[in-house]
Amino acid sequence: MKRKTVIVSIFLVSILAACQNGNEAAQVLEATATELPVLEPTPTELPVLEATPTDVPESPTPEPPPPDPLPELQRITVDNAGNVQLIRTFQIPNFSTSYTRGQCSTSFSPNGNFVAGVCIKNRIPLWDLDTGLLVREHANAIKNEITCTFDPAGETLVTAGFGPNISFWNLASGDRVERLGDYDDPVWDVDFSPDGRMLASVTLDWDAMLSNPPDDESLRDIQMWDVASGEQIWTVKQGVNFSLSVDFHPNGEIIAVGKTRGDVYIHDAATGNELYTFNTVPGWPNPGAGNIGDLAYSPTGRLLAAGSDDDKIWIWETGNYGLLYNLEGHDSYVNGVVFSADETFLVSSSDDSTIGIWNLATREMLVRLESHTDTALRVDLNAENTLITSVSWDGTVKLWGIPASE
What we know:
Elements: H1 2-18, H2 22-32, E1 85-91, E2 105-108, E3 114-118, E4 123-128, E5 134-140, E6 145-150, E7 156-161, E8 166-170, E9 176-180, E10 187-192, E11 198-203, H3 206-210, E12 222-226, E13 232-236, E14 243-248, E15 254-259, E16 263-268, E17 274-279, E18 292-297, E19 303-308, E20 312-317, E21 323-328, E22 334-339, E23 345-350, E24 354-359, E25 364-370, E26 376-381, E27 388-392, E28 396-401
Antiparallel strand pairs: 1-28, 2-3, 3-4, 4-5, 6-7, 7-8, 8-9, 10-11, 11-12, 12-13, 14-15, 15-16, 16-17, 18-19, 19-20, 20-21, 22-23, 23-24, 24-25, 26-27, 27-28
């Protein structure tokens, strides 16, 4: 700092020499020659400012966009079946594979406005076909739901399974309006008579089936119900040969029952009397070899089809229930069958995860539809034959058809 003071003083002396007024110069020199104190900066600690946390509201999860409306569709025929494609996939609400797997079911309402599907333990969904939106979820299934169907008037959805009752759901309100039975064992399939006055059901008795030897006396097996009164009309027990599927003939006078060991029984709908018994492939001592997973009469009642665990579809004429032929092409059990309205083709579903469409005249598989990632269980066709629905253990109900633009 002294070096700086000397330099400044010399500079000022030079200025004074040039000044004419000596007094002013002396005053300047005197004032400037004094050493000024050096001010050292005093360190000060600045306070650390911490950010004050604020609760930022989470952004609401955006609603998924609504599905596209159902496109205009062509009627499916043997000539255009090769163009059938996936139209829409519905995810079954609250679906879980952590429960016992059993049969699953899907069905179109008679007016073609809705589709329902049940599979394992879940809420029971009803979807609007035009919008693709979920109309409602009926109450939680107490246990696994296995089967569903609509009454012929299209006013009621009926579901059943491992729960204690057959449940009737009003389509308008979604309320459960009736319960039939008090079961300890699963109701594997149900079907309405064409006039809607009777409901046939088949029950699989787990305890009796698993006992060794099987307990014949405990089996309730086949039941017929009066829908109006809720009373049971008759019941039939049929020993170790357990029932898996049931279908009313279009005349409403007889029912066909598909059973384990490849057997099919025909019963009088009014009395329960056995009319015919015939077989596909005897399965004992291999219980799974010939099980009839599903059967269906054709719309005129002229034909009866059965999907079997021997990977085949069996077709009988119903005059005397003589076998006409087999359809072969699936790689595993056939779980669902349904005829087209004109009886020219048949739709099937299989453990191989595919849906098949068959030409009944040539007995060929016209197309194999692939999209499910697990066993495909039941199938249905709408009345116009423009849509196929299928249900799977992958937790989905799928719609198949041909857009009019194709």
